[in-house]
Amino acid sequence: MASDPSSPSTKPVEPFIPASQSLPELTLGVVILGSILAAILGAANAYLGMFAGMTVSASIPAAVVSMAILRFFRGNILQNNLVQTAAASGEGLAAGVIFTLPALVILGVWSRFSYVETAMIAGFGGLLGVLFTIPLRRALIIDQPLQFPEGVATAEVLKVGASSSSGGLGVIALAAVVGAIGKVGSTGLKLFGETAVKAGWLTDKATFYVGSNLSPALIGVGFIVGLNVALVIFAGAVVNRWIAVPLFGELADAGSIMTDKGVTLAEMLKGQSAVDSADIIHKYATRYLGVGGMLVGGFYALFKLRSSLLSGVKAGMDAYKKVKAGGSASIVRTEHDMPMNYVLILIVASVIPLFFIFNHFVHSIWISAVMAVVMLIAGFLFSAVASYMAGLVGSSNNPVSGITIATILTSALLLLAMGVDSKAGPIAAILIGGVVCCAASIGADNVQDLKCGQLVGSTPWKQQVMQIIGVIVAASLMAPILNLLHESYTIGSKALAAPQANLMGSVSMGVFKGGLPKLYIGIGAAIAVGVIILDNVAQKLKWPFRTPVMAFAVGVYLPFELSTPILLGGLIAWSVNRAIGKDASETRRADVERNGLLFSAGLITGEALMGVVLALLVSLKMDITLFKGEYAHVMWPGMILVGVAMAMTYRAALKKP
User: Does residue 538 lie within any of the structural domains?
Assistant: First the structure.
C-alpha cells in the first residue's frame, strides 16, 4: 500500500533476520532445489510466453514450493529466499529468450534452434543482467523509494512462513484461493473470459474502448503500488485508447503501415468490429507511442540515477578494498555484494564470446565489434530501465518487450547507417536485442529478489551467486525446450504464435525494408518530455501527486485492460488510508499495511502458482478445458470475482488483530 512514489521513507528498513545474526544460506540442498525449480519454471514459462504473449513471475510460487519442501529439512527463511531467487532467474531468462530468438526461426534464418548459439546468447545475456544489477542494487533498492510490489509480496510470504503465527498464512491461503479460481476459471477451464471489454464507433472510423482484465492478482499489484502510480499508469492507457486510437482511425493513413501479416493496416481493418479495430490499431500503430516514451523515460531515468549508479560502483570498489585490507568481516553481512573486480572481469569475459557469435552471423570483425559495444551499452542502459520499472509496477507487468523493441530499433538504425545490408541487418539487430532482452528481463526479476532479500535479511552476494546458477541452468535447457515446442506446435503458427518474437522480427525488417511507424515513436517521445516537465513542476511546487514518466509510458504501451484493475487496486489502498484516518497510531498503520500486503501477496501467489501449473499441463499436452472455450465471451463471473477480490482486500487490510 504505497503513497508518493517519489518521496523516500525516512524510516530505515529493518530486516527480518538482523545483519548481526547468521543462518545457513548457500547450501548444497539449496543449490539443487533452486536449480530444479529454475529448470521447471523456465520450461513452463517458455511455452506460456509464446502461447499467451506473457509470462508469470516465479518468485512467489517458488517461495511457496521451497517452504513446503525445506520445511521437512528444517530450512530457514534465508534458504527459502535463495531457492526462489534461482527459480526467478530461470523464469526471467525464459522470457528474454522467447521474446527474441524465435524471430530467427519465424524469419527463416534458423530451421531449428542451435544449442551452442542459443545457450551462449541466453547464458551470457543473463549473466550480464545479473552483473549489471549489482551496482543497481544500491542505486534502486537503497537510494530510491520504489515499491517493488512482487519483492515486497514475496518477502511477506516468506516472513509468514517463517513465523509461528498461522493467522498470516491463513490470510495468504484465502487470497490465493481467490487468485487461483480466477486463473483456472478463465485460462484453464475457460468458463468465462479473461477480460471484460466494450467498444463502439464514435464515427465510421473512430472507436471508443473500455475494458478490464478480470485478474484478482492485478488488484493486488495496484494495492501494493498505490493510487499515485496506478493513476499515472491509467492516464497513459487513456492517452492511447481514448485519444490516440480514435484520432488514428479518423485522421491517419493506415494504408502506409505494413503489418506482420503481409498486408497494410488499412486492409486488416476492413470489416473488423469496434473492439478488434481498436486492438489492431493499438498493436500496429499507437503502441509505438509507448516505445518512444520508454526511450525518453529510460534515458531520463538513467540521468536521474547517475549519482546513485556511480555511488553503487564506488561502494562496490570500496567494499573490495575493505575486504582486501581487513577481510570480509569489515563489511556488514546484509551489504556484502559480489566484489566489483569479479563483476568487471565477468563482464569482459561475457562480451568476448558474444563478439564471436556476432561475427559468425555478419562475417565482419568491424561490425561485430560495434555490435558488441552497442550490446554492452544497451544492456546496461535497459537493465537499469527494466529494473527501475520493476520497482515501479512489478516484474509481471514490466514491458520488457517494449524495451527490446527500442533496442532492436536503435540497433537496426545504427547498422543501417553503417551500411549493413537488408539480409544481415535484421539478424544482427535481433541478436543484439536477444542479449539485451535477456539482460533486462533478468535485471527486472533480480532486483525484485534483492529487494526481498533486503527485507528478510539475506546476504546479497549469496543471492547473486544463486542468480547466476539459475541463469546457467535455464540457458543450458532453452534450446532443447524450444526445439521440442517447435516440433510439437510450430513456432509462429496459430498454436504457438510467439507474438513478441513476431513483433521483433517485424521491427527489424521494417527498418531495413520500410513500414516502421516512426512518427508514433517520435510523438511518444515528445509526450514523454511533457510528462517529465510536469513531474518536475510538481516536485518544485511540492504537490502531493507526481507523474513518473516510466509509469506513464508503461500505461501507454500495455493493453488498456491491464491498467484498469491496477487502478482499482490503487483505489482500494486509498480507501483504506482514508478509513483509518489521519490520527491512527503508527502501530495501527503498520498492521493495516501488513494485512493489505499479505492479502495482496496471496492474490498474486494463487494466480502465479496456477499459471505455472496450467503451463506445465499444456506443455504435457493435457487439456482441461471443459467447454472448449464457448463460454470465453461471458464476462460476469470474472467481474463478480474481481469485485469479491476488491471487497476482501479492503476488509482484510482493516481487520484488527
Answer: no
